[in-house]
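Priority: medium. Attachment 1 of 2:
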C-alpha cells in the first residue's frame, strides 16, 4: 500500500510564503506524475500544480501561475509546492497526489491520480 503524507501547512499573512512537502511511503512504486490540489470550504477540489517526471514538465492553474512552483525528486517520490505571494483566496486544504499507472487524462484531472494524501491546511489571513 502507498501512503502520501503532506507537511508544511500553516497560518500565514497575505504576501507570505510557504513550502509544502509530500513524501510517499509504503510499497515501492514509480510515480509518473505528482501533483497538488486544494479544496476550500464549500468548493470542489481544484487543480493547483503538477510535475511530470519525464522531462520535468510542470503544469499550473492560472490562479497560481507565477506564484507557485512544483519541484521534487522522482527517485524518492517526493514533491514540493513553493507558494509565494500568498493571498486569502489561497486558503484551503492542500492535497498531494501521485500517478503510477499511465492514463490518457491530463494532469489537471483528479481521475488521473492513483494515490492521495490526507491534506494539509493552509490559511492566509488578510
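Attachment 2 of 2:
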Amino acid at each position: 500500500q502507498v501512503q502520501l503524507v503532506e507537511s508544511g501547512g500553516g497560518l500565514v499573512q497575505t504576501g507570505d510564503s510557504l513550502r509544502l512537502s509530500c513524501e510517499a511511503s509504503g510499497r515501492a512504486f514509480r510515480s509518473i506524475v505528482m501533483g497538488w490540489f486544494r479544496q476550500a470550504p464549500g468548493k470542489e477540489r481544484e487543480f493547483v500544480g503538477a510535475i511530470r517526471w519525464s522531462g520535468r514538465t510542470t503544469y499550473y492553474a492560472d490562479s497560481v501561475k507565477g506564484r507557485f512552483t512544483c519541484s521534487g525528486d522522482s527517485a524518492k517520490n517526493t514533491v514540493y509546492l513553493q507558494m509565494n505571494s500568498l493571498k486569502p483566496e489561497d486558503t484551503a486544504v492542500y492535497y498531494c497526489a501521485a500517478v503510477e499507472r499511465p492514463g490518457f487524462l491530463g494532469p489537471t484531472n483528479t481521475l488521473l491520480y492513483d494515490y492521495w494524501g490526507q491534506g494539509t491546511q493552509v490559511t492566509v489571513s488578510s
